[in-house]
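pinned: reference chain
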Amino acid sequence: MKKIISIFSLVMVFVFGSCIEQNYPIWDGAEVEFQDAVTRAPAAGQTFPRIAVQNTVGTVNLQVNLVSAQRTSDETITYNIVGDGTSAVAGTHYNASGSLVIPANSSFGELEVEILDTGVGTGVVDLLLELEGNANISASENYKRVQIRISQPAPPAD
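pinned: its structure tokens
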């Protein structure tokens, strides 16, 4: 008899437990983030990753993720160069447009930075990029920054 009551009780828990309506919160916002900021560890003492490149690399392509439902039209996302964290000079060390496009029906866009070959030099310069978003899409607070460290080869020894 105890087994029958135990089995009956267990069945009743499953039957009545499955009828409870679950109201899970659904996030319906939209954000953009750097893929490198999501997958790479932050640089020492920073909250953003640092990507090292040579000044002869040409173009650096950074993937930008759209964290939301895909859009039916192209989305233009703006970004800026953060002065505090940037020692590179526009037109001398790099060229950047300040915006990128996430195509319609896509979850990804590419931010292109042209790295200029300044020849031999000494040391490194840094370029800190920060996503801003647009009127409908904000930048992820945790993953909106990436720094590019541009190395200039040392002059040959005489």
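why pinned: Residues 94 and 115 are 5 Å apart (CA to CA). The mean pLDDT is 91.
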